[in-house]
Amino acid sequence: MRTSTSSRQRSRWSALAVLCSGQLMVILDGTIVNVALPAIQTDLGFSASTLAWVVNAYLVPFGGLLLLAGRFGDLIGRKRVFVTGLIVFTAASLLCGVATTPAMLLVARFVQGAGGAVTSAVTLGMVATLFPQPRERAKAIGVYSFVQSAGGSLGLLAGGVLTQTISWHWVFFVNVPIGIAAAALAGRILREDNGAGLGKEGKGMDVVGALLVTSALMLGVYTIVETTGYDWISAHTLGLGATALVLLFAFCLRQAKAANPLLRLGIFRSRNVSGALGVQALLVAGMFSFQFLCVLYLQKVLGFDEIRTGLGIFPVSVAIGALSLGLSPRLIARFGPRAVLLPGLVLIAAGLAALGRIPVGGSYVVDVLPVLMPLGIGFGLAMPSLATLAMSSATSEDSGTASGMFNTMQQVGSAFGLAVLSTLAAAHTETLLRNGADATSALTDGYQLAFRWGSGLVVAAAILAAVVLKRPTTTQDLPSTPELVDEGTDR
């Protein structure tokens, strides 16, 4: 019996390693490409206006398909959806790497974003399902949160190394062996789960709801990312934004009446779930002032190259790992996720506020490195707590949908934060340049403003968490769900 239990334990953690490998590959791609953009522009002949679509062509399908892919996982099996996403993502990565024209790269990036959404949508739900016991689940979600949080920083380092030492093609080629291995191991280790089924004549799937929410989310993300070229109050932005909101409202009405809703609206009655999703969107939006603009500060003001920039951000990943993989799960199990989340948000807000005072002639060791530690510690506390709260009302029937919804809010927050904060920084910099300021000073002041606004967004997240989230909330509140690991002869 002891041997059987030990084997089951190893199988679960092996499955977690496979899931997190696939998720890390997807998360890395969000930042690894950014470092390679100048080389891609030079090699393929992108114009300045179309270069942004190397990123946007990935973000639009990724943000738009998460919820739908999560629901498909609940209906046809999360393992099947996860492996399918890996295959699509890996094949698209290969096409990106061999692209010889801008059009070829953009089409491949769109497919890659779709594959990434399908993979990511069900991952958190599968993690929660693999570990039904509260303490083990807290540890597993800590590992998942580390991958989610630190992957962006690791992507910057990996992108710099690959671009400088080999070529930009390898920021895509590196996904191919990882994706093949992850898909093969997932097929072997994860147990087949048939899901609830699509039902006769498609009655298990709300097709109209699927079309409405996918259109709303893709149009919403598209509208946000296009604000770099259109004003927020332009007819283009307001018109498309209003259309996205109308589609989303129609989706909610549809879900209230549908016999088999795509999204169970009752899940939002949980203050912890609704609050966690709102907090996450604000937190991720605020943190983008660090993830994007701190990189620009290191490169354009301090003169770091790609590799030094990646190494400069790397301490954040170390701090996130130390918390997410060790202390955070124990604290969440002992005090509940709300009690761990609040100090994490305070640390992040304080770190961003400190970045809002970085000087023009700054020093990395004196002015940047000390600020990175509270940011890393805060994120290492906050993200496992949010993931735990967001999954607190999920059942075995809709954990894929809950997982997709959690990732959707992250993508919407990311797109919004990047658009708003980068626009604020650029507009302030342009104003200072017109008034006669030198370029370095104007850039720094623009970054400072964005960091302060990012801190404000995180403060808003902390206030929302304090007011909305219930206490005490511990991992004992989480539902137990059947495991998704193939235990072989021990099953």
Average pLDDT for all residues = 79
* Morphology call: globular
User: What sequence of helices (H) and strands (E) makes up the elements?
Assistant: HHHHHHHHHHHHHHHHH
Q: How much of the residues is beta strand, in percent?
A: under 5%
Tally of contiguous helical segments: 17
For the record, give the distance between the C-alpha atoms at the N and C termini, rounded to a whole number. Answer: 12 Å
User: Which stretches of 5+ consecutive residues score pLDDT under 50?
Assistant: 473-491
Helical content band: over 70%
DSSP strand tally: 0
Quick tags:
491 residues, mainly alpha, 17 helices, 0% strand, globular, disordered C terminus
Structural overview:
The chain has 17 helices and no strands. By secondary structure, the chain is mainly α. The chain is globular and about 65 Å long. Mean pLDDT is 79; it is low at 473-491.
TL;DR?
With 491 residues, the protein is mainly α. The protein contains 17 helices and no strands.
Layout of helices and strands, plus pairs?
Elements: H1 2-44, H2 48-51, H3 53-76, H4 78-97, H5 102-130, H6 134-165, H7 170-173, H8 175-189, H9 207-225, H10 235-257, H11 271-291, H12 293-301, H13 306-335, H14 337-355, H15 364-390, H16 399-434, H17 439-468
Helix pairs in contact: 1-3, 1-5, 1-6, 1-8, 3-4, 3-5, 3-9, 3-16, 4-5, 4-8, 5-6, 5-16, 6-13, 6-15, 9-10, 9-16, 11-14, 11-15, 11-16, 11-17, 12-17, 13-14, 13-15, 14-15, 14-17, 16-17
